[in-house]
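User: Earlier you gave me the apo prediction for this protein. Now I'd like the version with fe (ii) ion bound, so I can compare the two side by side. Same sequence as before, with the ligand SMILES added.
Assistant: Got it. Here's the input I'm using:
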Amino acid sequence: MADRNTPRYTVPSLTPQQGAKVAAILQERLNSLTDLHLTLKHVHWNVVGPHFIAVHEMLDPQVDAVRAMTDAIAERIATLGTSPVGTPGALVAARTWDDYSLRRASAIEHLGALDEVYEGVITAHRKAAKDTESLDDVTNDLLIGHLHELELFHWFVRAHLESAGGELSTAGATTEKGAAQKAAAGARATSTRSAGAKAAPKTAPKTASKAPAKTAAARTSSAKTTTARKKK
Ligand SMILES: [Fe+2]
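And here is the structure of the complex with fe (ii) ion:
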């Protein structure tokens, strides 16, 4: 007897069972991206402090693009002959992750947490693309297309967390709150460094003209401070 999730028909060249399998993979991606565009809007509303407007305005095109992805996924599920589920209760019952954990917070904290969010979404989306590769080229192409945009958006977020040396302040974080804390600490360290760099030219000429030994001592002290900051 046919499973209630097995469609009566599906796209040409797939069996109904294959259609059901692809649709199940897509339903999970529909849940994930519906959650993502709601989360991005939540951040758009809850970001505060310096850089508010940059992050607030950066997120709306991402919300629109991710929402368009959910529409394409849901319509592909219907095309495969099954019913896409888009209600909030079903999403919450089916998802395997927690709600986004930050409320009102600074731009850099939300960006740190969003790095973690995009990491999870993209990893799962790549797996779904891999899982449909030999099953359904059209679905695979759809998911690969999403990844082009999702990974671009992830870079937009990460560029705020990256040092001139290419290091991410959120490296090693495993939770949204942990990533938010690391991002905030990284931003504080960067602003302290740049404040130090601005102050340095005022004192350097005096030191240099009076005694070269003091200049050397200042360099040592500055190097120690840099090392201490790196350990945080
Ligand atoms: Fe808005």
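For your comparison, keep in mind: The chain is about 70% helix and 0% strand.
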